[in-house]
Fold:
Amino acid sequence: MNDGKANAPAHAPAMIELRGLTKDYGHGRGVFDLTLEVPEGQVCGFLGANGAGKTVTMRTLMGFIRAGRGSARIAGLDCYRDRARIQRDVGYLPGEVACPAGMTGWEFLRFMARLKGLRGETTMRALIDRFELDPSARIGRMSKGTKQKVALVCAFMGRPRVLLLDEPTSGFDPLIQERFVDLVREERERGATVLLSSHIFPEVERTCDRVAFVRAGRLAGVESMDEVRGARRRVYGIVFADAGECARYRAAHMRSPHVVAAVRGDAEARAADGGAVRVGSSGPGLRAGAHGTSGVGLEATVVGDVGGFIADLAGYRVVDLTTREQTLEETFLHIYDGATAGRTAGHAGRANGKETRR
Amino acid sequence: MNPTLLLHDLRRILPMWTALTAVTAAYIAVVVAMYDPRANEGLDALVATMPELFAAFGMDGASATLSGFMVDYLYGFLLVLLPMVMVVAAVHGTLIRPIETGSMAYLLASPHSRRTIAGSALASVVASSAAMAVAVSVTEAVCVAVRAPGDVALADIAAMNLGLLALWLSMAGVCALSACAIGNASAALWTGAGLCAAQFLIRMLAQADDGMDVLRCATALTLFDPEGLAAGEGPAVCGAVALAVAGAAMCVAAVEVFRRRDLSL
Structure:
């Protein structure tokens, strides 16, 4: 596992710099001892489940809230003390879009352009065209996606040096998400530094150079996107012909010490959510963790040779096989396997912001 | 203060300002039209039937002049209450609601200090109050000119309404301070509005019963003495200045609190 500093390329100065950032809201909420550097010109994903501390970090970087301990700096300036000065170079897309409902999109964008001291509307209009935005309606009557487009145009129209994007595509359809990805790539080419907070893996995967994982308010690690891609696995949902066949598969893949450890971990998960029981499996050419919610079906997480997994599966009576991408949580657990996974396996079942501090 | 922000905030206040100013002007016209020295005996008889109730609203029925009549029937009640609603709504629209809805995030994401942002919001509240005072003065001057030309000097109207503006500024200060100091939007709104309303209610109690006269010391409204201002009396002028200074001090404190507070937007 790497910390934020260790992963920062030595040749580029840090544009965004968090050092021991702590903001404690009690009951494990907030961020704790967060250290991260984003060099100039880099797009850094900031990943974590809901409630992991992403938005708190963004707000601290924007100077909305004061760090309890540690520091947050952009371009060497303190984010709280020098917040007005920093805003000249920052474009911000809040997680919750709350543009004034009584204004039309045009009124809001022109108001913000005046407020930011922007001259001309060339970039604004180009972004409006690009995202097929109709800014003539009142914002209060716009759909969530359209409001998100207004906020996005507002964040990008000043061509800032730093972009802080808090879950930027949550309201977009796939086509607009695609255009957003292209836009972020262009901004990177232009030299902008981007911190993109998200819990949507594909969005981060296609835009970011590096990715920082935050969990329960603490930085779990920073990896290059290539490393994350390499560690990512697929999850297969297997439905067997009957419960006996399912039990046979389960028993056959519970023989290794690795599997036993997985079962222990997941016993905690079941206690937490009352749902899934996982079993682990291991065999030639594959390593799999599986969990099922009924007597005839289970899910297997496969790494390495998928052919080996399928060949192994051919020995069983299978009636259905589906596949899905690993969730961020699962990817995270695999990347930080071993000691970290052992500590956090109990949390894995408590998805969607129900995490507790380690 | 930033002109773009100021105009933006003034636009927010304008619809409600227009409605309340129109209602206030209509009331002024009706009250001035009701003034008839020959019918004063009848009005006094009416007041005598429920003296405590009328006194609570500052109407003692003893006004022999149009100036006194206006003080009794306008400055004791309508010109305090209606502008108070305007001030509370203006502070709500420019400070409390943007924080509550999160739209304040966009203002804070601009290269302007919090002092500028909050200062512009409060400047819009002060400007709308001043505009209302001007509208009240003009309406009164026109109504007096039509109903009883020469009965009330323009200087007297101006003096009374300057004092009135000082009273409104003190209310704006209370509302602004509660808006900036209290994190919960509803609590911020009702604390400010409640404190202003409480001042008014305390004065009503003090006026309704001589035994509760001591309550005059518990309300800032006591510092507002329109008759004294019209007469140019020193204590009345000092009271108005004290209200204005208190309002300004609370606005400055509100800006400082806003500058330092965490805003989870």
